[in-house]
From TrEMBL:
<keyword id="KW-0670">Pyruvate</keyword>
<dbReference type="InterPro" id="IPR036663">
    <property type="entry name" value="Fumarylacetoacetase_C_sf"/>
</dbReference>
<dbReference type="GO" id="GO:0034545">
    <property type="term" value="F:fumarylpyruvate hydrolase activity"/>
</dbReference>
<protein>
    <submittedName>
        <fullName>Fumarylpyruvate hydrolase</fullName>
        <ecNumber>3.7.1.20</ecNumber>
    </submittedName>
</protein>
<keyword id="KW-0479">Metal-binding</keyword>
<dbReference type="GO" id="GO:0046872">
    <property type="term" value="F:metal ion binding"/>
</dbReference>
<dbReference type="Pfam" id="PF01557">
    <property type="entry name" value="FAA_hydrolase"/>
</dbReference>
<dbReference type="InterPro" id="IPR011234">
    <property type="entry name" value="Fumarylacetoacetase-like_C"/>
</dbReference>
<keyword id="KW-0378">Hydrolase</keyword>
<dbReference type="GO" id="GO:0018773">
    <property type="term" value="F:acetylpyruvate hydrolase activity"/>
</dbReference>
<feature type="domain" description="Fumarylacetoacetase-like C-terminal">
    <location>
        <begin position="27"/>
        <end position="227"/>
    </location>
</feature>
């Protein structure tokens, strides 16, 4: 087969303790999956079913990299998240079987152009311009299930320049990881390499040029991102 121009390289993320890479197929994100964050965004978590948005696979950024302050925003936000990496595909997955489809877990930072997201939300438009821009999905090394098990409780924390901004527990997720996997799989077929960013706790806030943002999750280490000048 001949292509009219070379295809893009395969997007991938690191694997903890290995030189191997995990190929990224799609990135799904769960919206407002911590009650306190839902409330700080002006929503009632007890009345809304889970919903999802996506980021392109090539939006991934590795641990320790510098992300240029993105264009068209004056309100650039961090969002600490637990990331699930799917290793075995499936459709209509039962909750009781969902964890069998997980290859591993990573730390994520769902970078957000909040001003653009809120404008879209108020106008009933898609969130793509606020969420799916270049280099908006920071994902640390993926830890295999065989090494870390299935995290369901413990600290998830984010600091900016050493100051704590988000501090919560994974057991505060409104929709658990098995529930999220099952719900997604009833809408479309999950495939190996799909990543799921499972939602952020309360305390989201602004990033500025020169900031260093660190996300830590129990058992998974720390994910560091530096914010550089606009490109």
């Amino acid at each position: 087969m001949n292509y009219v121009f070379p295809p893009a390289p395969q997007a991938s993320v690191a694997v903890a303790g290995s030189d191997d890479r995990l190929p990224v197929r799609r990135i799904f994100c769960v919206g407002r999956n911590y009650a306190a964050h839902a409330r700080e965004m002006g929503r009632d978590p007890d009345r809304e079913p889970p919903f999802f948005f996506t980021k392109p696979a090539d939006a991934v950024v590795m641990d320790g990299e510098t992300v240029a302050y993105p264009p068209e925003t004056e309100n650039f936000h961090y969002e600490a998240e637990l990331v699930v990496a799917i290793g075995t595909g499936g459709v209509n997955i039962a909750q009781k079987d969902a964890l069998n489809h997980v290859w591993g877990y990573a730390i994520g930072n769902d970078l957000t152009r909040r001003d653009l997201q809120l404008v879209a939300r108020e106008m009933g438009r898609p969130w793509d311009w606020g969420k799916a821009f270049d280099r908006s999905a920071v994902v640390g090394p993926v830890h295999p299930v065989s090494a870390v098990g299935h995290p369901s409780e413990g600290s998830i924390k984010l600091t900016v320049n050493g100051e704590t901004k988000q501090d919560a527990d994974l057991n505060e997720l409104i929709w658990s990881i098995p529930e999220v996997i099952s719900i997604l799989s009833h809408s479309m077929t999950l495939q190996p390499g799909d990543l799921i960013m499972t939602g952020t706790p309360a305390g989201v806030g602004q990033l500025n040029v020169g900031d260093t943002c660190e996300v830590s999750i129990v058992g998974l280490g720390t994910l560091t991102t530096h914010i550089g000048p606009a490109a």
